[in-house]
Amino acid sequence: MIRPSVQALEPYVPGEQPKLKRIVKLNANENAYPPSPKVKDAIREFDPRRLRLYPDPGCNRLRHLLARRYGCKAESVFVGNGSDEVLRLAVDVFTRNAAPVGVFEPSYSLYPVLSAIREAPLCRVPLPNGDGELAALKVPEPKPDLFCLVNPNAPTGTIFGIEAVREFARKLAPSILLVDEAYALFAGSDCVALALEEPNVVVARTFSKAWSLAGLRVGVLVGPEPLVSALYKVKDSYNVDALAQAVAEAALSDPDWMQENVRRIVATRDRFSKALEEAGWDVTPSHANFVWCRPPENGPDAEKLQAKVRNWGFLVRRFTEPVELGSHLRISVGTDAEMDELLGLLVK
Ligand code: PMP
Fold it and tell me: How do beta strands 122-126 and 101-105 pair?
């Protein structure tokens, strides 16, 4: 016996589930490879009794290790709960009420959110095409108190050279230029020297990408001491937990491991980009761990391809704000095997 109402029922259709049990996450620019075995050791050796006590509010050991890596004083280094916290604090601390925050477009979509929270007008400047255009750029009026430049840029993967960034920073002074270098270790060049030489430049870094620790939440800012100490004034007292501090210290003690993962990802990225190009895709040369690319016009568009690969468990990113970005996919670089399989789906 089946209840008549059930017999007659049109069943509820649940939300789409990817057909495969396996998910390959290529939509958040996480690292394809695990962190150093020293990270595993540090977690195993971490004494839970330490969690009774609050962590070091200043992350002093980690700060000193980072300072040694960057060739600066510990006072020039701020440690935060992921670089997203660092960026939020920078918007809070380096802007006056109602002063604009400058961003290039397209770039990291968190900045509009951070400026909206502060009720700061957002000054959007089209992303310059190369160093010449950046160096020649007129600073917008009214001058933003803070300008955020992502380098290498997300989602395009393009990069500016340090001297072009320096010129822009000098024109912007005394306003502050924040160079968001979440992906710099994949590029092999960075603007840390600017943050140590120019009074109005700060650089944000993260353990989430090249160091394979997105789940840990540790970010860094390097810059002039007065700017760094201003951030320390307003952060949460214990913004980085004790385990995160210990694990980040362990990761930093094994830079060769990180570097080898970077080397593999860069090799895979370049091979994947070339194969897409050979199949007629428009691929922006990438200096990061993702590829910004547009499928050829005579085939399925980005939206269709995103849906197609999703059915096979591959998550890739497509932005629709502003709408022109929707013609592209941003694909994080996975392992060689993952990228080969994805390529088979994209180009056939
Ligand atoms: N900046 C950029 C440009 C990013 O793409 C990301 C990651 N989405 C971040 C900062 C934030 O990284 P995290 O908070 O994990 O350090």
Answer: parallel
Mean pLDDT of the chain: 94
φ, ψ for residue 77, nearest 5 deg? -120, 130
Interval 22-48: pLDDT, tens: 899 999 999 999 999 999 999 999 999
Q: List the CATH number of the domain containing 283.
A: 3.90.1150.10
Could you tell me the strand order of the sheet in which 329-332 lies? 282-284, 290-294, 329-332
Mutate to test the pocket of ligand 1, among 180, 218, 319, 330 (most ligand atoms within 8 A of CB): 180
Residue 40 lies in a domain: no
Chain centroid, CA 204 distance in Å? 10
Q: Dihedral through CA 280, CA 281, CA 283, CA 288, nearest 10?
A: -120
Phi-psi region of 188 (alpha: psi -120 to 50; beta: other; left: phi over 0): left
Using CA positions, which residue lies closest to atom 6 of ligand 1?
Answer: 182
